[in-house]
Q: What sequence folds into this?
């Protein structure tokens, strides 16, 4: 299992368009990926659930990755968060 | 026959069927379904159909508004594939034995309510996205077809039209717009003007108008439902007069814009993107008096690079083939959504951190744009103007940066030409001290939209203030006259690039006070030329 935390820098947070990009990214890995934020958790492969987190600027998101390609997935996702949120 | 009085936001006559858009939220009945498997099949078919429509809309949007603004439609398609959404629909069908329509409507409502209950305004607004996709699936299920797809020419009636909605419309099939809300300065008004079709606002819509014959009189602001023969006859005659006038105007193509007593006025067009170039040429504008350069910034999710900007600017300059193109440098602020600028939300963006204020503060952004513009100058005739100026200091600073860029290009051996430098006169401050500013620039261009709202302290986006927002107010007109006099005394030529430039009731006065250039929306070039040519020719 891999895990990292990230504090959202983006003004509006994980909103519709970037949430869509995140879900696409998450689906490209074998591992199961979950997000925790704002006292809620979501499967990163489910768009509505990810949006329903309501992750906005300043909130901390914990990303947990579990599965065969978890090392690569963790690296890629961390970079993805830095670039997009 | 029913006769409804609204407010005209663009003139013209249209006769045709009404299509009521966006109000058609189907009332869905809960029914017992005989076979759950059959309902599931129906759902899958409808969902795939809806997804296919969204992919088409996305493609169209990429071309019309750019990749960044189009992505929302891709997200909509992804929402349709969402596991939770699909499970909810399928689960209702399986366990409650209901029809697919009810399962979709109920699921859509549930998800929409979940978002509506969220605290953050942005996330709250996502409930509209959920309703949008659910309505699309419902339309596919009931065979109604999505409301926005038009198969014949129609008068489109809607509560309001967002820019993203107008994307979906086949513009060739639009006869007129009728909306409930929206001011004369709204997005719909601008679209109507650029398409040259009548538009009314302030009309309370009724759902059962859909499909009924109707007529729009954009001269008087009247909508007729099921018009009788007498009304139709009057309107057809008016329509013919409009068409004749239009034909006459087309004869004015390639004619000089000159008054009967020999005074020449430069008649240019305003554009908001490279997509407007075709109508500039079609309407025979003598140049571009206002090139709003924001579009490149709005359609991307990163700062457009020098090369990206250079390519777009070069296209415009080359297409205009030697006719003048006046570039207004970036006018962006908190009222335009550009995430990557990282602008704070403001109470009053019109008076906020925008335009030249951002450019002089974040000179990296400004320099990139100036380099791209100056490089494009090698390919045609180009001028630069700075928006939102309030002081001489700002002009000197902007010119200093421009000179620095010129030296850079010189050193790098990149080609450029000398360009005229001007400013927008859109703040009362700039208008009042225009005598002091004239010596620093080659030209002034009066932005009457902002000037009017600042002088009259009337927000032009607020429909309740349409009566206050009077561009003919003596305070506005006197300032314009002063600016023209001060400009000329200081050796600067003076143009008008706001909406007022196209107001033909003022054209003769503009010529009298010595305005050198008028820059108008492309469809108004020929009407204004006609008025100018008629001056002193009785």
A:
């Amino acid at each position: 299992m891999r895990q990292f935390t990230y504090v959202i820098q983006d003004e509006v947070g994980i909103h519709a368009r970037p949430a869509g990009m995140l879900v696409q990214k998450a689906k490209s890995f074998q591992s199961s990926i979950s997000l925790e934020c704002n006292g809620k958790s979501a499967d990163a492969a489910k768009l509505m659930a990810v949006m329903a987190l309501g992750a906005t600027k300043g909130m901390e998101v914990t990303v947990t990755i579990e599965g065969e390609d978890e090392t690569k997935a963790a690296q890629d996702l961390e970079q993805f968060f830095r670039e997009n949120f | 026959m029913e006769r409804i009085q609204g407010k005209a936001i663009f003139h013209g006559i249209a006769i045709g069927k009404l299509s009521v858009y966006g109000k058609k939220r189907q009332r869905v009945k809960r029914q017992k379904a005989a076979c759950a498997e059959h309902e599931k099949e129906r759902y899958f078919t409808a969902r795939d159909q809806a997804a296919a429509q969204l992919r088409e809309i996305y493609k169209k949007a990429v071309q019309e508004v750019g990749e960044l603004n189009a992505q929302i439609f891709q997200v909509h398609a992804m929402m349709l594939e969402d596991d939770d959404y699909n499970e909810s629909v399928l689960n209702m069908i399986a366990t409650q034995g209901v029809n697919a329509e009810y399962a979709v409507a109920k699921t859509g409502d549930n998800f929409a309510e979940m978002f509506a209950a969220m605290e953050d305004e942005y996330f709250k607004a996502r409930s509209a996205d959920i309703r949008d996709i659910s309505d699309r699936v419902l339309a596919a299920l009931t065979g109604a077809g999505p409301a926005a797809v038009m198969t014949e020419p129609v008068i489109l009636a809607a509560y309001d039209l967002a820019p993203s909605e107008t994307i979906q419309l086949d513009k060739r099939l639009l006869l007129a717009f009728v909306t409930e809300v929206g001011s004369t300065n709204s997005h719909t008004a601008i679209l109507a003007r650029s398409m040259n079709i009548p538009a009314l606002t302030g009309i309370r819509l009724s759902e059962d108008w859909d499909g009924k014959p109707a007529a729009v009189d954009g001269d008087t602001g009247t909508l007729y439902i099921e018009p009788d023969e007498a009304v139709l006859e009057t309107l057809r005659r008016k329509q013919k007069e409009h068409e004749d006038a239009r034909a006459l105007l087309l004869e004015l193509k390639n004619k000089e814009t000159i008054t009967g007593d020999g005074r020449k006025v430069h008649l240019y067009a305003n554009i908001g993107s490279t997509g407007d170039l075709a109508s500039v040429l079609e309407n025979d504008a003598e140049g571009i008096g206002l090139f709003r350069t924001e579009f490149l910034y709005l359609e991307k999710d990163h700062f457009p690079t020098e090369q990206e900007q250079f390519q777009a600017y070069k296209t415009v300059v080359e297409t205009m083939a030697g006719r003048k193109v006046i570039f207004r440098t970036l006018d962006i602020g908190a009222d335009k959504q550009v995430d990557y600028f990282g602008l704070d939300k403001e109470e009053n963006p019109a008076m906020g951190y925008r335009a030249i204020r951002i450019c002089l503060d974040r000179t990296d952004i400004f320099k990139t744009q100036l380099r791209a513009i100056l490089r494009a100058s090698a390919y045609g005739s180009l001028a630069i103007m700075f928006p939102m100026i309030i002081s001489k200091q700002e002009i000197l600073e902007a010119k200093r940066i421009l000179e620095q860029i010129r030296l850079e290009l010189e050193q790098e051996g990149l080609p450029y030409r000398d360009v005229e430098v001007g400013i927008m006169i859109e703040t009362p401050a700039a208008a009042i001290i225009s005598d002091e500013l004239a010596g620093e620039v080659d030209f002034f261009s009066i932005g009457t939209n902002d000037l009017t709202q600042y002088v009259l302290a009337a927000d032009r986006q607020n429909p309740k203030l349409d009566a206050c927002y009077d561009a003919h107010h003596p305070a506005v007109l006197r300032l314009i006259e002063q600016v023209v006099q001060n400009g000329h005394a200081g050796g600067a030529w003076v143009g008008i690039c706001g909406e007022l430039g196209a107001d033909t009731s003022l054209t003769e006065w503009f010529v009298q006070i010595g305005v050198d250039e008028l820059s108008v929306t492309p469809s108004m070039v020929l009407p204004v030329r006609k008025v100018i040519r008629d001056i002193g020719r009785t």
Summary: Chain B touches chain A through 24 residues (CB under 8 Å). Chain B has three domains: 2-22+148-243, 36-142, 250-534. The longest strand of chain B covers residues 13-21. The domain at 36-142 of chain B is CATH 1.10.274.10 (Enzyme I; Chain A, domain 2).
